[in-house]
């Protein structure tokens, strides 16, 4: 995005260059997070039929709610993209507003997930029920935890934007946050397919 | 009330063993001594400002080094206790349970709390200097990595006197490591000690990849980068792919133990073999993670002390990267006996043997570098030369183990024990020691004494072969690992006694090295040139010890052995002096957050270890608050004015 900052003079350019370094580091962090989810998906694949006589996914999953939360998360990914567009146009108020919309959608997603988990527990599927449910709660829960951490980060970032406006540092932070948010969206697509769709088929 | 406290204390503290009581007393005395000295000489402020909050990669490297040497001592004492117990048949020096705890902590400490931090210490001490950078890419994160490692290591070591040590083997295979067979906090210490330090390792991997890719001095293309930095890149790439697997694996084991999940249990649809697969998907790359930087060190040392350019630079780089990739396709050779299909076993047997090819390329390149070189046998070179035959035999026995049908005979026998100690001591430890001797003057400004070092060297080396060669034979004679005792009827007593003698010789070698360090602090040869070995790469172009900003002027690199080329040009009179243009230097500010945040992580680990969820919650809140506060800090850097740079350089004897 900022390819013209290659000279090694000090001052503002130096700052900008340093911020770019942090975006690269965040990309690599996302790679490690991919491996992390990959390991959880592999575990889930191994445990996919380990019901140990307990309830199966097919019996308990309620797809309409899951489809709703899928659309909510996808929309939030779109609004976080709009936030970045607003930032590139230099409109700080619009940026904060889109981030707020993203956060509300994210919160709705987390609330729906918590509801789903409580419902499943009432139906008698807990972490300790069988290998399948252990893998299910861990995989889906890790994704939910990531979304929650993202919300915490988003709130901190909105406060900083309000105080400091758009500068090299806040721009880098918004870039990383939206990268993170899109990444969680992609993970959810896989999760929705592998866990829920293949689960009820 | 008093009864409650007594009850609590009798389970909380480890009791009933005179060895442990001795350790309790010495720990308390050491702590008191440290507090006394710091208070008496009013050094608390100094300690906080200069060390505990530092973000300087050289100081972080030194702290890693100190911590890893302490852990080498502890892991070494564990080893000697085991060898004492096995010296004669039917000894009752250690009981079975105690022996189990000791082989567990020995393995865990040596790999995760000795080899890893010693490696990170070398990364930190060398890489930025070698590539002409002023610090790593993320100095704050670097400090956080260190403190996460350190507090993770301390949490693990605490198990020794509080709660009881883990005793399910260094990789804690289930079902033995599950609640049914390992109740109590010991196994939890293992999980959380490794989990916390593992997060730090992952962050270090990211940090050094970005540092190497983005912070090289102008002109230093990747094809001109010194081989140690290449090896660090290779190792860091393996870290970012392997460590997330470890994080998940032990998180799942924790969920089994804490939340009653069924990942690795015998019932409820769990699968213990899944743990073995997962842990070795991390574990096998892990051994290459630690050995590859040692290869990098040998490459630097061989070139410097043969006074020749390294032979086959490109093939060296190719080999480092080939090892990094291949390391992820060999994990199942750790359990050929699991009984999968023949084709799976054949795949892993062949992929394991394939690793010998790039490794062989490297060995030949080191030998060809020495060929017709003017070799000087200084300490770093001694360890390098000792490494080659040792690693050759270790590698050859590794290929023997890779022969799957034969492995059914060797599996988990002392043959295996001898093999991996030969590659880990002969490769990793010899390599890191070579690196420490080589770069010591750059960090501390003096050389380590040659004479004491040679005593240490010969004790280590002769001791090594006396200790481990008999173990190959013992393996063939049917002795399997983790036996805590054996009878006279087995015929193993002679070789075991010989092996114990060898282990103690290595212990004596270590004592010589500690003596060498303490002696050299006062009497070691001072390095006033900054280039005591007449070496080849950039780190030797600056004064020793390096100033905190490393390079007053960032060098312009033209050659793969740039400093050597500069020296040659100066000698030939073809060197063109470039005008010195000093600029204010951009540096990161110190921060107390890394150590505070890591302490909260320690609370999380300690809380979960004892099942005190409230404490873990306090820890999580603390971590969140630390991240919040850090996120709101914008004033994190400063500029060193030109005047100060000029003054510092002048005090180091360099006029600019």
Automatic annotation (TrEMBL), chain A:
InterPro entries according to UniProt: Cyt_c/ubiquinol_Oxase_su3, Cyt_c_oxidase-like_su3, Cyt_c_oxidase_su3-like_sf, Cyt_c_oxidase_su3_a-hlx, Cyt_c_ubiqinol_oxidase_su3, Ubiquinol_oxase_su3_dom
GO biological process: aerobic electron transport chain
Occurrences of domain Heme-copper oxidase subunit III family profile (ranges): 1-200
Subcellular location: Cell membrane
Keywords linked to the UniProt accession: Cell membrane, Electron transport, Membrane, Oxidoreductase, Transmembrane, Transmembrane helix, Transport
SUPFAM superfamilies reported in the protein's UniProt record: Cytochrome c oxidase subunit III-like
Assembly: Heterooctamer of two A chains, two B chains, two C chains and two D chains.
Name assigned to this protein: Cytochrome bo(3) ubiquinol oxidase subunit 3
Organism listed in the record: Brevibacillus parabrevis
TrEMBL record, chain B:
Enzyme Commission number(s) of this protein: 7.1.1.9
Subcellular location: Cell membrane
Catalytic activity: 4 Fe(II)-[cytochrome c] + O2 + 8 H(+)(in) = 4 Fe(III)-[cytochrome c] + 2 H2O + 4 H(+)(out)
Family stated for the protein in its record: Belongs to the heme-copper respiratory oxidase family.
Membrane-spanning residues: 20-39, 60-81, 101-127, 139-162, 189-215, 227-255, 287-305, 317-336, 342-368, 380-404, 416-440, 452-475, 495-515, 600-630
Gene3D superfamilies: 1.10.287.70, Cytochrome c oxidase-like, subunit I domain
One cellular component (GO) term of this entry: plasma membrane
Enzyme kind, highest EC tier: translocase
GO biological process, one term: electron transport coupled proton transport
PANTHER family: CYTOCHROME BO(3) UBIQUINOL OXIDASE SUBUNIT 1, CYTOCHROME C OXIDASE SUBUNIT 1
UniProt keyword terms in alphabetical order: Cell membrane, Copper, Electron transport, Heme, Iron, Membrane, Metal-binding, Respiratory chain, Translocase, Transmembrane, Transmembrane helix, Transport
A matching Pfam family: COX1
Domain Cytochrome oxidase subunit I profile positions: 40-558
GO MF terms held by the record: cytochrome bo3 ubiquinol oxidase activity; cytochrome-c oxidase activity; heme binding; metal ion binding
Lineage: Bacteria, Bacillati, Bacillota, Bacilli, Bacillales
Keyword Electron transport: yes
Pathway entry: Energy metabolism; oxidative phosphorylation
Topology versus the membrane: Multi-pass membrane protein
Name of the featured protein: Cytochrome c oxidase subunit 1
């Amino acid at each position: 995005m900022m390819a013209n900052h290659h000279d090694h003079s000090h001052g503002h350019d130096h700052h900008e260059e340093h911020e770019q370094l942090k975006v690269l580091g965040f990309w690599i962090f996302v790679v490690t997070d991919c491996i992390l989810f990959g390991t959880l998906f592999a575990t889930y694949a191994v445990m996919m039929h380990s019901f140990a006589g307990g309830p199966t996914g097919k019996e308990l999953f309620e797809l309409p709610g899951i489809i709703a939360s899928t659309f909510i998360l996808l929309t939030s990914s779109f609004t976080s993209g709009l936030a970045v567009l607003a930032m590139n146009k230099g409109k700080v108020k619009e940026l904060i507003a889109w981030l707020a919309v993203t956060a509300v959608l994210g919160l709705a997603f987390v609330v729906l997930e918590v509801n789903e988990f409580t419902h499943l527990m009432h139906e008698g599927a807990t972490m300790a029920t069988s290998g399948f449910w252990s893998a299910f709660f861990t995989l889906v829960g890790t994704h939910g935890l990531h979304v929650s951490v993202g919300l915490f980060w988003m709130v901190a970032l909105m406060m900083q934007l309000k105080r400091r406006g758009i500068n090299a540092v806040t721009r880098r932070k918004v870039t990383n946050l939206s990268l993170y948010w899109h990444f969680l969206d992609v993970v959810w697509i896989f999760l929705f397919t592998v866990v829920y769709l293949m689960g009820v088929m | 009330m008093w009864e409650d406290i007594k009850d609590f204390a009798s389970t909380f503290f480890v009791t009933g063993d005179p060895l442990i009581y001795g350790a309790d007393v010495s720990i308390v005395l050491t702590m008191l001594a440290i507090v006394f000295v710091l208070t008496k000489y009013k050094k608390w402020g100094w300690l906080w400002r200069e060390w505990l909050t530092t973000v300087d990669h050289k100081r972080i490297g030194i702290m890693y080094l100190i911590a890893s040497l302490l852990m080498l001592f502890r892991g070494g004492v564990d080893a000697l206790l085991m060898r004492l117990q096995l010296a004669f048949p039917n000894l009752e020096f250690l009981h079975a349970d105690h022996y189990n705890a000791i082989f567990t902590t020995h393995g865990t400490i040596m790999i995760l709390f000795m080899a890893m931090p010693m490696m990170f210490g070398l990364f930190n001490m060398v890489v930025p200097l070698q590539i002409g950078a002023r610090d790593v890419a993320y100095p704050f994160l670097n400090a956080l990595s260190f403190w996460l490692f350190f507090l993770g290591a301390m949490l693990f070591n605490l198990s020794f006197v509080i709660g009881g040590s883990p005793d399910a083997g260094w990789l804690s295979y289930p079902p033995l490591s599950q609640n049914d067979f390992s109740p109590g906090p010991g196994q939890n210490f293992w999980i959380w000690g490794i989990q916390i330090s593992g997060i730090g390792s992952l962050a270090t991997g990211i940090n050094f990849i970005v540092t190497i890719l983005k912070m090289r001095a102008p002109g230093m293309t990747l094809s001109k980068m010194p081989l140690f930095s290449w090896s660090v890149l290779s190792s860091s790439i393996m870290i970012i792919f392997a460590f997330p697997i470890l994080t998940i694996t032990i998180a799942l084991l924790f969920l089994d133990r804490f939340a009653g999940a069924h990942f690795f249990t015998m019932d409820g649809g769990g699968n213990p073999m899944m743990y073995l697969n997962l842990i070795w998907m991390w574990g096998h790359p892990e051994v290459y993670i630690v050995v590859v930087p040692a290869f990098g060190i040998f490459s630097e040392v061989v070139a410097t002390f043969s006074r020749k350019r390294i032979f086959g630079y490109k093939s060296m780089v190719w080999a480092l990267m080939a090892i990094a990739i291949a390391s992820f396709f060999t994990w199942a050779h750790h359990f050929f006996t699991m009984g999968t299909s023949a084709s799976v076993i054949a795949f892993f047997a062949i992929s394991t043997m394939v690793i010998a090819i790039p490794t062989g390329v490297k060995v030949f390149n080191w030998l060809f570098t020495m060929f017709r070189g003017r070799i000087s046998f200084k300490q770093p070179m001694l360890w390098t030369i000792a490494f080659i035959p040792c690693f050759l035999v270790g590698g050859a026995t590794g290929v023997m183990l890779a022969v799957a049908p034969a492995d059914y005979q060797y599996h988990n026998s002392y043959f295996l024990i001898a093999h991996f100690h030969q590659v880990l001591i002969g490769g990793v430890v010899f390599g890191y020691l070579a690196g420490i001797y080589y770069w010591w003057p750059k960090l501390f400004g003096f050389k380590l004494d040659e004479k004491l070092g040679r005593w240490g060297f010969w004790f280590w080396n002769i001791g090594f072969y006396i200790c481990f060669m008999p173990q190959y034979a013992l393996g063939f004679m049917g002795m399997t690992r983790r036996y805590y005792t054996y009878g006279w009827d087995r015929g193993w007593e002679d070789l075991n006694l010989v092996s114990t003698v060898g282990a103690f010789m290595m212990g004596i070698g270590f004592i010589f090295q500690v003596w060498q360090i303490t002696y050299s602090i006062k009497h070691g040869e001072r390095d006033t040139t900054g280039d005591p070995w007449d070496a080849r790469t950039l780190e030797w172009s600056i004064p020793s010890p390096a100033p905190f900003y490393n390079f007053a002027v960032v060098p312009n690199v033209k050659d793969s052995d740039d400093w050597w080329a500069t020296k040659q040009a100066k000698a030939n009179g073809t060197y063109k002096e470039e005008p010195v243009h000093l600029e204010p230097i951009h540096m990161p500010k110190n921060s107390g957050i890394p150590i505070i945040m890591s302490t909260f992580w320690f609370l999380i680990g300690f809380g979960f270890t004892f099942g005190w969820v409230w404490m873990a919650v306090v820890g999580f809140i603390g971590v969140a608050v630390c991240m919040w506060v850090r996120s709101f800090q914008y004033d994190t850097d400063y500029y060193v004015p030109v005047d100060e740079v000029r003054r510092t350089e002048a005090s180091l004897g360099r006029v600019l």
